[in-house]
Amino acid sequence: MTRDIAAPTASRLADGREILFFSSDGPPAIGVDRRDLPDRPTVPVTTVRRDPTTGDNIIVAPARQERTYKPPRTMCPLCPDPSGLSSEIPAADYEVVVFENRFPSLATPAGFEPPTGAGADPLRVERPGLGRCEVVCFASDHDGSFARLSRRHARLVIDAWSHRTSELLARSDIEEVYCFENRGEEIGVTLPHPHGQIYGYPFRTRRTASLLRTAAQYRAENGADLFEAVLAAEVADGARILVRTEHVTAFVPYAAKWPVEVHVYPNRHVRNLAELTEAEADDLAAVYLLLLRAFDAMYDAPLPYIASWHQYRADAAEGYLHAELFSIRRSADKLKYLAGSESGRDAFVTDKTPEAIADEVRRVIR
């Protein structure tokens, strides 16, 4: 049922990091990265510490303080550079590019073997920050956005996400693969060039663990799959459905907590992006573009948002591929700040009903 994804064209940057070119028009012309970059570390430079009061895994990555911060356009590291002197991408042009982050939160140096055995102090649990962090450049146009991509180009991004998901889930040092996009300065974006990221975590994140725990409990109590039940209930209700096609459904969830929040599910139960068929991937690209274009049409300026993809191993007991798109903008001139209740207690207070959110998004879709 799954589709064949063309292998990318692989190359290396000046410091040895891998870079992958995904193209729909044959192999791209790749130049040579001529920058004088420092050698890559031979041991992990980040750590994962366990919060003894919550059990949360906290990634400690002080080197990320040195990452590129709002450079002038002429020095954008994500624009193509055929000279190989000023950019991460030594090419005259490209469609979709994925490369290892130069300032990663998680990285496994080649040949590194993590120490065995646990520490004796349960209050001071720390391990190397192994894993992988990648940057996904959606297009070479510095002033573009995902919403402005063609369907064919958006589908190529989905194929790139799918390829990387399969490759990373096959690694023994990675437990969870997370594809996401941060859009807008209000979200904290420091490079405006259209791009996203992929994190390969060495642990199961708190959010994923919570979803799977709730799904297991629902199955035990109701004898059914939680995510299938949620999708069926939203379709039956209809009040918050935004788009429903042959292969994809998009809706505002019953208990939406963000000022704008949309969930996107394939209609067939799959665990991750790599399991989609050709038709499902095409449909997903079209619906995803429709939603992002609607986000840009809600106010006078493009909506800042986070696009968050939930996916799981093919043999996982629970889990259903879906995307969550959400924004902190609650009106044309106001942002939602995560203040005392949200930040201090994870207890969200929303200013809009989910039904009102659905009406707002439907209005701009139409």
TrEMBL record:
PROSITE patterns found in the cross-reference section: GAL_P_UDP_TRANSF_I
Pfam families in the record: GalP_UDP_tr_C (PF02744), GalP_UDP_transf (PF01087)
EC code(s) of this entry: 2.7.7.12
Galactose-1-phosphate uridyl transferase C-terminal domain span: 214-319
Catalysed reactions listed for this entry: alpha-D-galactose 1-phosphate + UDP-alpha-D-glucose = alpha-D-glucose 1-phosphate + UDP-alpha-D-galactose
Protein's pathway: Carbohydrate metabolism; galactose metabolism
Entry annotated with the keyword Nucleotidyltransferase: yes
Uppermost EC category: transferase
MF GO annotations: nucleotidyltransferase activity
Protein name per its UniProtKB record: Galactose-1-phosphate uridylyltransferase
Organism: Tsukamurella paurometabola
Biological classification of the source: Bacteria, Bacillati, Actinomycetota, Actinomycetes, Mycobacteriales
